[in-house]
Design a protein that fits this description.
Radius of gyration: 22 Å
Strand content: under 5%
Length: 282
C-alpha cells in the first residue's frame, strides 16, 4: 500500500492554491463584500443598542403579540429578556440576535428561490444535492479557515460561515414543499388559465408555506448553533463569553451565557411558528 500513500492526490494543496489565487486577484472584491456585510450587521447592532433595554423589550413583546396573538408568549418574552438583562448579557444578546437575523435573512433570500427552481427542475436538484450534503456534513472549522483567509478577522467570516452552514435547510425544505404540491391543485389552476407565475404565487407557495416556515425555523436554529464557533474568528455575541468560560473553566459564566443562547433560540422559534386558527401560537 506504500505506492498508494506515496502518490497522494494533492487535494489539500489544490484548495490552498485556489484560495491563495482568489485572495491575490480578487482581494478588492472580498474587501468590498466584507465592508458591506460588516456595515450591515454593525448598523443593526448599533440600532438595537441605541434603544433603551426596556423600550426594546416592549417593542419585542408587541411584535410577539402581533405575530402570534398569544398573551402567554408575551409574558414569556418579557420575563425571559428581563432575565437576560439581569444576568448582564443584554449587549451580547443583541449582537447575537443581529448575527442570527442577518444570517437567516441571507439564507432565506438565497435559499428559497433555489429551492423553488430545484422543485421545477429535477435535474438542478440532482446536481446541487451533493453540494448541499457537503455543506451540511463537512466540519464547520474546515470552511471557517478559507473564509477567515479571504475576509479577515471579525464578524464577517463568522456570518458567511453561518450562512454556508444554514442555507441547505431552506433550500431542501422549500424544494420539499413545492414539489409535494398535489398535481390536482396545479391542474385545477391550469384549467382556469393560470400562468406559471400565478400558479407559483397562488397555488404552490401557499401550499408549501408551512414547510418553508419549518425551513426558516431550522435555519434560525442552525445559525444559533454557529454562535460559539463564529466567536473563534472574532464575531461578537454570546459566543464570546462561552469561549472565555471554556478557556478559563468558568462553569458559572459558561452556563449563564449558554442559557441565554437557549432562551433566544426558544423565543425565535415561537416567533416564527405559524399561528393556529384559534388565534394563539402553536
Amino acid at each position: 500500500m506504500e505506492w498508494l500513500t506515496e502518490n497522494k492526490i494533492p487535494l489539500g494543496k489544490t484548495i490552498e492554491w485556489l484560495v491563495d489565487l482568489l485572495n491575490e486577484h480578487f482581494a478588492w472584491l472580498f474587501d468590498f463584500i466584507s465592508d458591506v456585510l460588516g456595515f450591515t450587521i454593525e448598523g443593526l447592532i448599533d440600532i438595537l443598542q441605541w434603544c433603551h433595554p426596556l423600550a426594546l423589550i416592549a417593542l419585542i413583546a408587541a411584535l410577539a403579540y402581533w405575530l402570534q396573538r398569544s398573551i402567554p408568549l408575551v409574558v414569556a418574552v418579557i420575563l425571559s429578556l428581563l432575565f437576560i438583562v439581569n444576568l448582564g448579557y443584554w449587549e451580547d444578546t443583541l449582537e447575537t440576535i443581529a448575527l442570527v437575523v442577518c444570517a437567516t435573512a441571507f439564507s432565506m433570500v438565497a435559499g428559497v428561490p433555489v429551492g423553488i427552481a430545484a422543485a421545477h427542475r429535477p435535474g438542478l436538484y440532482t446536481a446541487i444535492r451533493p453540494v448541499l450534503d457537503l455543506m451540511q456534513t463537512i466540519p464547520t472549522f474546515v470552511y471557517l479557515i478559507p473564509t477567515l483567509t479571504l475576509f479577515g478577522l471579525g464578524v464577517v467570516p463568522g456570518l458567511i460561515s453561518t450562512v454556508i452552514f444554514a442555507i441547505p435547510a431552506p433550500i431542501r425544505l422549500t424544494y420539499l414543499g413545492v414539489s409535494s404540491v398535489p398535481k390536482a391543485l396545479v391542474e385545477a389552476g391550469e384549467s382556469f388559465g393560470a400562468t406559471k407565475q400565478q400558479l407559483l404565487w397562488k397555488v404552490e407557495i401557499p401550499h408549501a408555506m408551512p414547510t418553508i416556515m419549518a425551513g426558516l425555523t431550522q435555519c434560525i436554529m442552525l445559525s444559533l448553533s454557529m454562535v460559539v464557533i463564529a466567536a473563534l474568528v472574532g464575531a461578537d455575541g454570546l459566543g464570546k463569553p462561552v469561549v472565555r468560560a471554556l478557556n478559563t473553566v468558568n462553569i458559572s459564566k459558561g452556563f449563564e451565557a449558554g442559557l441565554a443562547i437557549v432562551i433566544i433560540a426558544i423565543l425565535l422559534d415561537r416567533f416564527c411558528r405559524q399561528r393556529n386558527k384559534n388565534g394563539g401560537g402553536k
